[in-house]
Amino acid sequence: MICVNQYHTHFCSEVSESDIGNQVRVAGWVENIRDHGGIQFLDLRDHYGVVQVVVYNEAMLANVNRQCCITVEGTVILRSEDTINPKIATGTIEIKTNTLTVLGKAPSSLPFEIDNSTNTKEDVRLKYRFLDLRNPKVHKNIVLRSQVISFLRNKMSELGFLDIQTPILSASSPEGARDYLIPSRKHHGKFYALPQAPQIFKQLLMVSGFDRYFQVAPCFRDEDARADRSPGEFYQLDFEMAFATQEDVLTVAEEVISETFKRFSDKKVSNAPFPRIPYAEAMLYYGTDKPDLRNPLKIVDITEIFATTDFAPFKNKTIRAINVPDCASKPKSFFENMLKYATEELEMMGLGYIKVTEQMEFLGPINKFIPDNQRENLIEKAKLVPGCVLYFIADEPMVAAKLAGQIRSELGRRLNLIDNSEFKMCFVVDFPMFEIDEETGAYIFTHNPFSMPQGGLQALLEQEPAEILAYQYDIVCNGVELSSGAVRNHELSTMIKAFEIAGYTEDNLKESFSALYHAFQYGPPPHAGMAPGIDRMIMLLTEEESIREVIPFPMNSNAQDLLLGAPTEITEQQMREVHIKIR
Fold first, then answer.
1. How many Cβ atoms sit within 10 Å of the Cβ of residue 437?
2. Across 235-246, average pLDDT
3. pTM of the model
Protein backbone atom coordinates (compact mmCIF):
# COMPACT_ATOMS: atom_id res chain seq x y z
CA MET A 1 0.00 0.00 0.00
CA ILE A 2 1.57 3.29 -1.15
CA CYS A 3 0.52 6.33 0.89
CA VAL A 4 1.13 9.67 -0.86
CA ASN A 5 0.86 12.95 1.06
CA GLN A 6 3.08 15.81 2.18
CA TYR A 7 4.84 13.60 4.72
CA HIS A 8 5.47 10.41 2.76
CA THR A 9 5.11 8.78 -0.62
CA HIS A 10 6.08 5.39 0.85
CA PHE A 11 5.97 3.69 4.20
CA CYS A 12 9.47 2.85 5.41
CA SER A 13 9.11 -0.86 4.68
CA GLU A 14 7.90 -0.24 1.11
CA VAL A 15 11.00 1.39 -0.33
CA SER A 16 12.69 -1.24 -2.53
CA GLU A 17 15.17 -1.80 -5.35
CA SER A 18 12.41 -0.98 -7.84
CA ASP A 19 12.57 2.62 -6.53
CA ILE A 20 16.33 3.05 -7.22
CA GLY A 21 16.93 6.41 -8.87
CA ASN A 22 13.52 7.75 -7.85
CA GLN A 23 12.66 10.53 -5.42
CA VAL A 24 10.72 9.34 -2.37
CA ARG A 25 9.47 10.81 0.89
CA VAL A 26 9.35 8.81 4.12
CA ALA A 27 8.37 9.76 7.67
CA GLY A 28 8.90 8.19 11.06
CA TRP A 29 11.00 8.20 14.20
CA VAL A 30 14.79 8.27 14.33
CA GLU A 31 15.83 5.00 15.88
CA ASN A 32 19.61 5.36 15.61
CA ILE A 33 22.15 7.90 14.38
CA ARG A 34 25.59 6.72 13.31
CA ASP A 35 28.43 9.07 12.38
CA HIS A 36 30.80 7.66 9.75
CA GLY A 37 33.32 10.45 9.31
CA GLY A 38 31.03 13.29 8.28
CA ILE A 39 28.38 11.06 6.73
CA GLN A 40 25.41 10.38 9.02
CA PHE A 41 23.33 7.22 8.81
CA LEU A 42 19.84 7.27 10.33
CA ASP A 43 17.60 4.29 10.95
CA LEU A 44 14.10 5.64 10.37
CA ARG A 45 11.21 3.55 11.68
CA ASP A 46 7.48 3.87 11.20
CA HIS A 47 4.63 1.49 12.05
CA TYR A 48 5.49 -0.81 9.14
CA GLY A 49 9.28 -1.12 9.26
CA VAL A 50 12.65 0.59 9.03
CA VAL A 51 14.74 2.15 6.27
CA GLN A 52 18.24 3.61 6.31
CA VAL A 53 18.64 7.30 5.50
CA VAL A 54 22.01 8.83 4.54
CA VAL A 55 22.71 12.50 5.36
CA TYR A 56 25.76 14.16 3.81
CA ASN A 57 24.95 17.67 5.09
CA GLU A 58 25.49 17.55 8.86
CA ALA A 59 23.65 20.87 9.29
CA MET A 60 20.41 19.04 8.50
CA LEU A 61 20.74 17.22 11.82
CA ALA A 62 21.03 20.32 14.03
CA ASN A 63 17.73 19.59 15.81
CA VAL A 64 17.61 15.84 15.31
CA ASN A 65 17.85 13.43 18.26
CA ARG A 66 16.94 9.80 18.60
CA GLN A 67 13.16 9.27 18.77
CA CYS A 68 12.34 12.65 17.25
CA CYS A 69 9.81 12.49 14.41
CA ILE A 70 10.99 13.56 10.94
CA THR A 71 10.10 13.47 7.28
CA VAL A 72 12.83 12.93 4.70
CA GLU A 73 12.86 13.41 0.93
CA GLY A 74 15.65 11.92 -1.13
CA THR A 75 16.86 9.56 -3.84
CA VAL A 76 16.79 5.80 -3.43
CA ILE A 77 20.24 4.29 -4.04
CA LEU A 78 21.68 0.78 -3.85
CA ARG A 79 23.80 0.02 -0.83
CA SER A 80 27.36 -1.13 -1.34
CA GLU A 81 27.65 -4.91 -1.02
CA ASP A 82 29.50 -4.78 2.30
CA THR A 83 26.76 -2.66 3.93
CA ILE A 84 23.73 -4.78 2.96
CA ASN A 85 21.55 -5.65 5.98
CA PRO A 86 19.68 -8.94 5.37
CA LYS A 87 17.79 -8.58 8.65
CA ILE A 88 15.41 -5.93 7.30
CA ALA A 89 13.22 -5.83 4.19
CA THR A 90 14.89 -2.63 2.96
CA GLY A 91 18.40 -3.89 3.64
CA THR A 92 19.70 -3.57 0.07
CA ILE A 93 18.82 0.13 -0.40
CA GLU A 94 19.06 3.46 1.37
CA ILE A 95 17.76 6.99 0.86
CA LYS A 96 20.22 9.77 0.02
CA THR A 97 18.69 12.79 1.72
CA ASN A 98 17.82 16.00 -0.13
CA THR A 99 15.62 17.57 2.56
CA LEU A 100 14.90 16.70 6.18
CA THR A 101 12.17 18.29 8.31
CA VAL A 102 11.66 17.78 12.03
CA LEU A 103 7.96 17.15 12.70
CA GLY A 104 8.20 16.45 16.43
CA LYS A 105 11.20 17.15 18.67
CA ALA A 106 12.51 14.74 21.32
CA PRO A 107 14.79 15.43 24.30
CA SER A 108 18.44 14.43 24.07
CA SER A 109 18.03 12.12 27.09
CA LEU A 110 15.46 9.30 27.06
CA PRO A 111 14.05 7.53 30.16
CA PHE A 112 15.22 4.20 28.71
CA GLU A 113 16.64 2.67 25.57
CA ILE A 114 13.65 1.91 23.35
CA ASP A 115 14.97 -1.37 21.95
CA ASN A 116 15.76 -2.52 25.49
CA SER A 117 12.62 -1.21 27.17
CA THR A 118 11.38 -4.66 28.24
CA ASN A 119 14.35 -4.88 30.61
CA THR A 120 13.41 -1.59 32.28
CA LYS A 121 11.48 -1.41 35.56
CA GLU A 122 7.81 -1.90 34.68
CA ASP A 123 6.54 1.23 36.41
CA VAL A 124 8.93 3.35 34.33
CA ARG A 125 7.81 1.59 31.16
CA LEU A 126 4.15 2.21 31.95
CA LYS A 127 4.74 5.88 32.81
CA TYR A 128 6.30 6.31 29.36
CA ARG A 129 4.12 3.70 27.65
CA PHE A 130 4.04 5.78 24.45
CA LEU A 131 7.80 5.21 24.19
CA ASP A 132 7.65 1.60 25.34
CA LEU A 133 5.18 0.88 22.53
CA ARG A 134 7.79 2.02 19.99
CA ASN A 135 9.88 -1.01 20.91
CA PRO A 136 9.34 -3.30 17.88
CA LYS A 137 8.69 -6.32 20.10
CA VAL A 138 6.09 -4.54 22.23
CA HIS A 139 4.60 -2.90 19.12
CA LYS A 140 4.30 -6.31 17.46
CA ASN A 141 2.29 -7.67 20.40
CA ILE A 142 -0.33 -4.95 20.00
CA VAL A 143 -0.48 -5.46 16.23
CA LEU A 144 -1.05 -9.16 16.85
CA ARG A 145 -3.77 -8.32 19.35
CA SER A 146 -5.59 -6.30 16.69
CA GLN A 147 -5.22 -9.09 14.13
CA VAL A 148 -6.50 -11.74 16.56
CA ILE A 149 -9.55 -9.67 17.51
CA SER A 150 -10.32 -9.00 13.85
CA PHE A 151 -10.02 -12.72 13.09
CA LEU A 152 -12.31 -13.61 16.00
CA ARG A 153 -14.95 -11.12 14.90
CA ASN A 154 -14.91 -12.42 11.34
CA LYS A 155 -15.02 -16.04 12.49
CA MET A 156 -17.98 -15.47 14.80
CA SER A 157 -19.88 -13.63 12.06
CA GLU A 158 -19.11 -16.50 9.69
CA LEU A 159 -20.69 -18.88 12.22
CA GLY A 160 -23.88 -16.83 12.30
CA PHE A 161 -23.33 -14.84 15.50
CA LEU A 162 -24.48 -11.20 15.71
CA ASP A 163 -22.08 -8.63 17.16
CA ILE A 164 -24.22 -6.79 19.74
CA GLN A 165 -22.93 -4.28 22.27
CA THR A 166 -24.22 -4.33 25.84
CA PRO A 167 -24.19 -1.45 28.37
CA ILE A 168 -21.09 -0.32 30.27
CA LEU A 169 -23.05 1.55 32.95
CA SER A 170 -25.00 -1.12 34.77
CA ALA A 171 -26.19 -2.21 38.21
CA SER A 172 -24.15 -3.77 40.97
CA SER A 173 -24.76 -7.50 41.38
CA PRO A 174 -23.14 -10.22 43.52
CA GLU A 175 -21.18 -12.10 40.82
CA GLY A 176 -18.06 -13.03 42.77
CA ALA A 177 -15.65 -10.10 42.42
CA ARG A 178 -15.79 -6.52 43.68
CA ASP A 179 -17.60 -4.04 41.46
CA TYR A 180 -16.26 -0.73 40.24
CA LEU A 181 -18.92 1.73 41.42
CA ILE A 182 -19.90 5.08 39.88
CA PRO A 183 -22.01 7.56 41.90
CA SER A 184 -25.04 9.03 40.17
CA ARG A 185 -25.40 12.81 39.90
CA LYS A 186 -29.13 12.71 39.13
CA HIS A 187 -30.11 10.02 41.62
CA HIS A 188 -28.91 11.01 45.07
CA GLY A 189 -27.19 8.21 46.98
CA LYS A 190 -27.39 5.68 44.16
CA PHE A 191 -24.61 4.09 42.15
CA TYR A 192 -23.97 2.53 38.78
CA ALA A 193 -21.52 -0.36 38.44
CA LEU A 194 -19.24 -1.32 35.59
CA PRO A 195 -20.18 -4.85 34.45
CA GLN A 196 -18.01 -7.71 35.66
CA ALA A 197 -19.19 -9.46 32.47
CA PRO A 198 -22.15 -9.05 30.11
CA GLN A 199 -23.68 -12.12 31.77
CA ILE A 200 -27.19 -10.84 32.45
CA PHE A 201 -27.44 -8.83 29.24
CA LYS A 202 -26.50 -11.73 26.99
CA GLN A 203 -29.06 -13.94 28.69
CA LEU A 204 -31.67 -11.25 28.20
CA LEU A 205 -30.76 -11.14 24.50
CA MET A 206 -31.61 -14.85 24.27
CA VAL A 207 -34.96 -14.20 25.99
CA SER A 208 -35.45 -11.37 23.47
CA GLY A 209 -35.38 -13.81 20.56
CA PHE A 210 -31.84 -13.42 19.24
CA ASP A 211 -30.31 -16.74 18.29
CA ARG A 212 -26.54 -16.20 18.43
CA TYR A 213 -24.84 -13.22 20.10
CA PHE A 214 -21.20 -12.26 20.53
CA GLN A 215 -19.06 -9.27 21.33
CA VAL A 216 -15.47 -8.45 22.20
CA ALA A 217 -16.56 -7.46 25.67
CA PRO A 218 -14.76 -5.29 28.24
CA CYS A 219 -15.15 -6.68 31.75
CA PHE A 220 -14.42 -4.75 34.93
CA ARG A 221 -13.46 -6.40 38.21
CA ASP A 222 -11.77 -4.84 41.21
CA GLU A 223 -9.33 -7.73 41.69
CA ASP A 224 -5.67 -7.98 42.59
CA ALA A 225 -3.28 -8.46 39.68
CA ARG A 226 -1.61 -11.74 38.75
CA ALA A 227 0.68 -12.68 35.91
CA ASP A 228 -2.36 -13.83 33.91
CA ARG A 229 -4.88 -11.33 35.28
CA SER A 230 -5.01 -7.60 34.74
CA PRO A 231 -6.50 -5.50 37.55
CA GLY A 232 -9.49 -3.45 36.50
CA GLU A 233 -10.27 -4.17 32.87
CA PHE A 234 -9.94 -7.18 30.61
CA TYR A 235 -11.52 -8.42 27.38
CA GLN A 236 -13.25 -11.62 26.43
CA LEU A 237 -14.92 -13.11 23.38
CA ASP A 238 -18.35 -13.29 24.93
CA PHE A 239 -20.90 -15.45 23.14
CA GLU A 240 -24.28 -17.02 23.80
CA MET A 241 -26.55 -19.40 21.88
CA ALA A 242 -30.30 -20.01 22.17
CA PHE A 243 -31.73 -23.55 22.07
CA ALA A 244 -28.21 -24.87 22.69
CA THR A 245 -26.72 -27.70 24.70
CA GLN A 246 -23.30 -27.92 26.33
CA GLU A 247 -21.95 -29.85 23.36
CA ASP A 248 -23.18 -27.16 20.92
CA VAL A 249 -21.13 -24.53 22.77
CA LEU A 250 -18.04 -26.73 23.04
CA THR A 251 -18.16 -27.46 19.31
CA VAL A 252 -18.17 -23.73 18.47
CA ALA A 253 -15.39 -23.05 20.96
CA GLU A 254 -13.25 -25.86 19.54
CA GLU A 255 -13.51 -24.47 16.03
CA VAL A 256 -12.89 -20.85 16.97
CA ILE A 257 -10.05 -21.43 19.44
CA SER A 258 -8.17 -24.05 17.41
CA GLU A 259 -8.39 -22.00 14.20
CA THR A 260 -7.21 -18.87 16.02
CA PHE A 261 -4.16 -20.60 17.49
CA LYS A 262 -3.34 -22.27 14.17
CA ARG A 263 -3.68 -18.98 12.31
CA PHE A 264 -1.39 -17.02 14.62
CA SER A 265 1.18 -19.60 15.72
CA ASP A 266 3.58 -22.07 14.14
CA LYS A 267 3.17 -24.46 17.07
CA LYS A 268 1.24 -27.69 16.94
CA VAL A 269 -2.35 -27.09 18.07
CA SER A 270 -4.85 -29.63 19.40
CA ASN A 271 -7.40 -30.73 16.84
CA ALA A 272 -11.08 -31.07 17.65
CA PRO A 273 -12.53 -32.70 19.56
CA PHE A 274 -10.61 -31.53 22.62
CA PRO A 275 -10.52 -33.99 25.54
CA ARG A 276 -13.43 -33.60 27.98
CA ILE A 277 -12.06 -34.10 31.50
CA PRO A 278 -14.54 -34.20 34.40
CA TYR A 279 -13.58 -31.89 37.26
CA ALA A 280 -13.18 -34.80 39.69
CA GLU A 281 -10.75 -36.53 37.32
CA ALA A 282 -8.81 -33.31 36.75
CA MET A 283 -8.33 -32.89 40.49
CA LEU A 284 -7.37 -36.55 40.90
CA TYR A 285 -4.94 -36.99 38.00
CA TYR A 286 -3.56 -33.45 37.70
CA GLY A 287 -4.27 -31.80 41.06
CA THR A 288 -5.85 -28.77 39.40
CA ASP A 289 -8.86 -27.78 37.33
CA LYS A 290 -6.39 -26.15 34.90
CA PRO A 291 -4.33 -29.19 33.81
CA ASP A 292 -1.30 -28.75 31.57
CA LEU A 293 -1.59 -31.81 29.34
CA ARG A 294 1.91 -31.28 27.94
CA ASN A 295 3.18 -32.70 31.21
CA PRO A 296 2.96 -36.52 30.91
CA LEU A 297 3.03 -37.13 34.69
CA LYS A 298 -0.20 -38.22 36.35
CA ILE A 299 -1.23 -38.42 39.99
CA VAL A 300 -2.63 -41.59 41.52
CA ASP A 301 -4.66 -42.02 44.72
CA ILE A 302 -3.05 -44.67 46.96
CA THR A 303 -4.93 -43.85 50.17
CA GLU A 304 -6.35 -47.39 50.51
CA ILE A 305 -2.86 -48.93 50.48
CA PHE A 306 -2.06 -47.13 53.73
CA ALA A 307 -5.50 -47.55 55.30
CA THR A 308 -4.10 -49.30 58.40
CA THR A 309 -0.74 -47.52 58.65
CA ASP A 310 0.63 -46.17 61.92
CA PHE A 311 3.01 -43.87 60.07
CA ALA A 312 1.93 -40.50 61.47
CA PRO A 313 2.26 -38.37 58.28
CA PHE A 314 0.01 -40.86 56.40
CA LYS A 315 -2.42 -41.86 59.14
CA ASN A 316 -6.03 -40.92 58.36
CA LYS A 317 -4.86 -38.78 55.43
CA THR A 318 -5.57 -38.70 51.71
CA ILE A 319 -2.41 -39.92 49.98
CA ARG A 320 -1.55 -39.03 46.41
CA ALA A 321 1.51 -40.31 44.53
CA ILE A 322 3.36 -39.35 41.36
CA ASN A 323 5.33 -41.91 39.35
CA VAL A 324 8.32 -40.27 37.66
CA PRO A 325 9.95 -42.60 35.10
CA ASP A 326 13.74 -42.75 34.64
CA CYS A 327 14.36 -40.58 37.70
CA ALA A 328 16.06 -42.97 40.14
CA SER A 329 19.51 -42.17 38.74
CA LYS A 330 19.19 -38.45 39.43
CA PRO A 331 21.85 -37.01 41.76
CA LYS A 332 21.19 -36.52 45.46
CA SER A 333 20.93 -32.76 44.91
CA PHE A 334 17.82 -33.23 42.72
CA PHE A 335 15.91 -34.87 45.57
CA GLU A 336 17.22 -32.35 48.10
CA ASN A 337 16.10 -29.45 45.91
CA MET A 338 12.64 -30.97 45.44
CA LEU A 339 12.36 -31.33 49.23
CA LYS A 340 13.44 -27.71 49.65
CA TYR A 341 10.80 -26.59 47.13
CA ALA A 342 8.11 -28.59 48.95
CA THR A 343 8.96 -27.33 52.44
CA GLU A 344 9.90 -23.73 51.68
CA GLU A 345 7.70 -22.82 48.71
CA LEU A 346 4.65 -24.99 49.44
CA GLU A 347 5.11 -25.14 53.24
CA MET A 348 4.73 -28.94 53.24
CA MET A 349 6.00 -30.92 56.20
CA GLY A 350 8.10 -33.06 53.86
CA LEU A 351 8.16 -34.88 50.55
CA GLY A 352 8.66 -38.63 50.79
CA TYR A 353 9.70 -40.88 47.91
CA ILE A 354 10.96 -44.31 46.97
CA LYS A 355 13.29 -45.34 44.15
CA VAL A 356 12.59 -48.55 42.24
CA THR A 357 15.66 -50.64 41.39
CA GLU A 358 16.18 -52.86 38.34
CA GLN A 359 15.15 -55.79 40.56
CA MET A 360 11.91 -53.95 41.52
CA GLU A 361 13.14 -53.36 45.05
CA PHE A 362 12.25 -50.14 46.87
CA LEU A 363 14.85 -47.73 48.23
CA GLY A 364 14.28 -44.51 50.08
CA PRO A 365 12.88 -42.94 53.25
CA ILE A 366 9.30 -44.21 52.78
CA ASN A 367 10.22 -47.83 52.01
CA LYS A 368 9.99 -49.13 55.58
CA PHE A 369 6.48 -47.70 56.02
CA ILE A 370 4.96 -49.54 53.05
CA PRO A 371 2.93 -52.54 54.33
CA ASP A 372 4.47 -55.80 53.11
CA ASN A 373 1.11 -57.13 51.98
CA GLN A 374 0.51 -54.00 49.85
CA ARG A 375 3.75 -53.83 47.89
CA GLU A 376 2.42 -55.71 44.86
CA ASN A 377 -0.73 -53.61 45.00
CA LEU A 378 1.38 -50.43 45.02
CA ILE A 379 3.38 -51.66 42.01
CA GLU A 380 0.17 -52.28 40.08
CA LYS A 381 -1.70 -49.20 41.26
CA ALA A 382 1.16 -46.74 40.61
CA LYS A 383 2.44 -48.63 37.52
CA LEU A 384 5.94 -48.84 38.96
CA VAL A 385 8.80 -49.94 36.69
CA PRO A 386 12.57 -50.23 37.16
CA GLY A 387 14.30 -46.85 37.41
CA CYS A 388 11.24 -44.84 38.39
CA VAL A 389 10.71 -42.72 41.51
CA LEU A 390 7.40 -42.53 43.36
CA TYR A 391 6.70 -39.32 45.27
CA PHE A 392 4.15 -39.29 48.13
CA ILE A 393 1.92 -36.36 49.14
CA ALA A 394 -0.39 -36.75 52.19
CA ASP A 395 -2.87 -34.26 53.64
CA GLU A 396 -6.56 -33.46 53.85
CA PRO A 397 -8.40 -34.37 50.60
CA MET A 398 -8.45 -31.01 48.78
CA VAL A 399 -5.07 -29.95 50.15
CA ALA A 400 -3.47 -33.22 49.07
CA ALA A 401 -4.88 -32.78 45.56
CA LYS A 402 -3.61 -29.22 45.27
CA LEU A 403 -0.14 -30.00 46.63
CA ALA A 404 0.21 -33.03 44.38
CA GLY A 405 -0.67 -30.83 41.42
CA GLN A 406 2.01 -28.32 42.37
CA ILE A 407 4.63 -31.05 42.84
CA ARG A 408 3.62 -32.53 39.46
CA SER A 409 4.08 -29.16 37.76
CA GLU A 410 7.45 -28.57 39.41
CA LEU A 411 8.70 -32.03 38.45
CA GLY A 412 7.61 -31.40 34.87
CA ARG A 413 9.55 -28.13 34.83
CA ARG A 414 12.73 -29.46 36.48
CA LEU A 415 12.83 -32.58 34.34
CA ASN A 416 12.11 -30.67 31.10
CA LEU A 417 9.04 -32.77 30.41
CA ILE A 418 7.02 -29.86 28.98
CA ASP A 419 6.91 -29.71 25.18
CA ASN A 420 6.88 -25.99 24.41
CA SER A 421 6.29 -26.61 20.71
CA GLU A 422 2.57 -27.25 21.11
CA PHE A 423 -0.69 -25.89 22.47
CA LYS A 424 -2.65 -28.65 24.19
CA MET A 425 -6.30 -27.86 24.76
CA CYS A 426 -8.94 -29.57 26.85
CA PHE A 427 -12.34 -28.91 28.36
CA VAL A 428 -12.85 -29.41 32.08
CA VAL A 429 -16.52 -30.30 32.58
CA ASP A 430 -18.94 -31.44 35.30
CA PHE A 431 -17.98 -28.89 37.95
CA PRO A 432 -19.70 -29.15 41.34
CA MET A 433 -22.69 -26.83 41.57
CA PHE A 434 -22.03 -25.99 45.22
CA GLU A 435 -19.16 -26.04 47.69
CA ILE A 436 -18.77 -25.40 51.41
CA ASP A 437 -17.62 -21.94 52.46
CA GLU A 438 -14.68 -22.58 54.80
CA GLU A 439 -15.49 -19.53 56.93
CA THR A 440 -19.24 -19.98 57.36
CA GLY A 441 -19.71 -23.71 56.75
CA ALA A 442 -22.65 -22.87 54.46
CA TYR A 443 -23.11 -23.89 50.82
CA ILE A 444 -22.11 -21.35 48.18
CA PHE A 445 -22.02 -21.48 44.39
CA THR A 446 -18.78 -23.01 43.10
CA HIS A 447 -18.78 -20.89 39.93
CA ASN A 448 -21.48 -19.17 37.94
CA PRO A 449 -24.73 -18.95 39.93
CA PHE A 450 -26.75 -18.93 36.68
CA SER A 451 -25.67 -22.46 35.67
CA MET A 452 -28.15 -25.26 35.10
CA PRO A 453 -27.73 -28.13 37.58
CA GLN A 454 -27.41 -31.54 35.97
CA GLY A 455 -30.74 -33.19 36.69
CA GLY A 456 -32.54 -29.86 36.97
CA LEU A 457 -34.95 -29.13 39.79
CA GLN A 458 -35.23 -32.81 40.71
CA ALA A 459 -31.52 -32.96 41.52
CA LEU A 460 -31.81 -29.88 43.74
CA LEU A 461 -34.73 -31.43 45.61
CA GLU A 462 -33.38 -34.97 46.01
CA GLN A 463 -29.56 -34.88 46.08
CA GLU A 464 -27.13 -33.61 48.67
CA PRO A 465 -25.88 -30.20 47.46
CA ALA A 466 -22.25 -31.39 47.46
CA GLU A 467 -23.18 -34.18 45.02
CA ILE A 468 -24.90 -31.98 42.44
CA LEU A 469 -22.96 -31.29 39.27
CA ALA A 470 -23.56 -28.31 36.99
CA TYR A 471 -23.44 -27.89 33.25
CA GLN A 472 -20.30 -25.78 33.63
CA TYR A 473 -17.14 -26.03 31.57
CA ASP A 474 -13.74 -24.40 31.13
CA ILE A 475 -11.34 -24.33 28.20
CA VAL A 476 -7.78 -24.91 29.38
CA CYS A 477 -4.65 -24.47 27.24
CA ASN A 478 -1.21 -25.44 28.56
CA GLY A 479 -2.34 -25.03 32.14
CA VAL A 480 -4.01 -21.65 31.57
CA GLU A 481 -7.77 -21.23 31.92
CA LEU A 482 -8.92 -19.49 28.74
CA SER A 483 -12.60 -19.50 29.38
CA SER A 484 -15.51 -20.44 31.59
CA GLY A 485 -19.01 -21.11 30.41
CA ALA A 486 -22.24 -22.85 31.25
CA VAL A 487 -25.64 -24.00 30.16
CA ARG A 488 -27.82 -21.38 31.80
CA ASN A 489 -30.53 -22.05 34.33
CA HIS A 490 -33.52 -20.64 32.46
CA GLU A 491 -36.21 -22.28 34.61
CA LEU A 492 -37.36 -19.86 37.29
CA SER A 493 -38.40 -22.52 39.82
CA THR A 494 -35.01 -24.25 39.42
CA MET A 495 -33.21 -20.93 39.84
CA ILE A 496 -35.16 -20.08 42.99
CA LYS A 497 -34.26 -23.45 44.55
CA ALA A 498 -30.58 -23.20 43.52
CA PHE A 499 -30.26 -19.77 45.12
CA GLU A 500 -32.12 -21.00 48.20
CA ILE A 501 -29.46 -23.69 48.73
CA ALA A 502 -26.80 -20.98 48.44
CA GLY A 503 -28.51 -18.93 51.14
CA TYR A 504 -30.63 -16.53 49.06
CA THR A 505 -34.36 -16.04 49.48
CA GLU A 506 -36.66 -15.47 46.54
CA ASP A 507 -36.84 -11.82 47.62
CA ASN A 508 -33.02 -11.64 47.45
CA LEU A 509 -33.19 -13.04 43.92
CA LYS A 510 -35.83 -10.51 42.90
CA GLU A 511 -33.74 -7.67 44.29
CA SER A 512 -30.27 -8.70 43.08
CA PHE A 513 -31.23 -10.15 39.69
CA SER A 514 -34.55 -8.51 39.02
CA ALA A 515 -34.13 -8.36 35.24
CA LEU A 516 -33.60 -12.12 34.88
CA TYR A 517 -36.23 -12.91 37.50
CA HIS A 518 -38.89 -11.02 35.54
CA ALA A 519 -37.65 -11.98 32.06
CA PHE A 520 -37.72 -15.69 32.91
CA GLN A 521 -41.48 -15.41 33.44
CA TYR A 522 -41.94 -14.64 29.71
CA GLY A 523 -40.98 -17.76 27.80
CA PRO A 524 -37.19 -17.98 28.17
CA PRO A 525 -35.51 -20.44 25.77
CA PRO A 526 -32.80 -22.90 26.85
CA HIS A 527 -29.49 -21.14 26.24
CA ALA A 528 -25.77 -21.59 26.85
CA GLY A 529 -22.50 -19.82 26.19
CA MET A 530 -18.97 -19.05 27.25
CA ALA A 531 -16.38 -16.28 27.11
CA PRO A 532 -12.76 -17.06 26.13
CA GLY A 533 -10.31 -14.50 27.52
CA ILE A 534 -8.71 -12.57 24.67
CA ASP A 535 -5.82 -11.18 26.74
CA ARG A 536 -4.84 -14.67 27.89
CA MET A 537 -5.05 -16.07 24.36
CA ILE A 538 -2.66 -13.41 23.09
CA MET A 539 -0.42 -13.89 26.11
CA LEU A 540 -0.04 -17.56 25.13
CA LEU A 541 0.45 -16.78 21.44
CA THR A 542 3.22 -14.28 22.20
CA GLU A 543 4.74 -16.48 24.94
CA GLU A 544 4.74 -13.53 27.32
CA GLU A 545 4.88 -14.21 31.06
CA SER A 546 2.78 -11.16 32.01
CA ILE A 547 -0.61 -10.28 30.61
CA ARG A 548 0.35 -6.59 30.73
CA GLU A 549 2.72 -7.18 27.79
CA VAL A 550 -0.24 -7.68 25.43
CA ILE A 551 -2.48 -4.81 26.60
CA PRO A 552 -1.90 -1.38 24.99
CA PHE A 553 -2.32 0.71 28.14
CA PRO A 554 -2.39 -1.60 31.18
CA MET A 555 -2.52 -0.68 34.83
CA ASN A 556 0.43 -1.76 36.91
CA SER A 557 0.25 -4.58 39.44
CA ASN A 558 -1.05 -2.11 42.03
CA ALA A 559 -4.04 -1.12 39.86
CA GLN A 560 -2.57 2.28 38.89
CA ASP A 561 -2.52 3.92 35.49
CA LEU A 562 0.90 5.57 35.71
CA LEU A 563 0.54 7.20 32.30
CA LEU A 564 -2.59 9.21 33.16
CA GLY A 565 -2.15 9.15 36.92
CA ALA A 566 -5.32 7.20 37.72
CA PRO A 567 -6.82 6.82 40.19
CA THR A 568 -6.77 10.57 40.78
CA GLU A 569 -8.15 12.88 43.41
CA ILE A 570 -11.17 14.93 42.41
CA THR A 571 -12.33 18.37 43.51
CA GLU A 572 -14.77 19.12 46.30
CA GLN A 573 -17.16 20.47 43.64
CA GLN A 574 -17.05 17.20 41.71
CA MET A 575 -17.79 15.24 44.87
CA ARG A 576 -20.69 17.53 45.75
CA GLU A 577 -22.21 17.01 42.29
CA VAL A 578 -22.42 13.27 42.85
CA HIS A 579 -23.40 13.60 46.53
CA ILE A 580 -20.35 11.89 48.07
CA LYS A 581 -17.57 12.80 50.48
CA ILE A 582 -14.38 11.10 51.61
CA ARG A 583 -14.41 9.69 55.11
1. 12
2. 97
3. 0.92
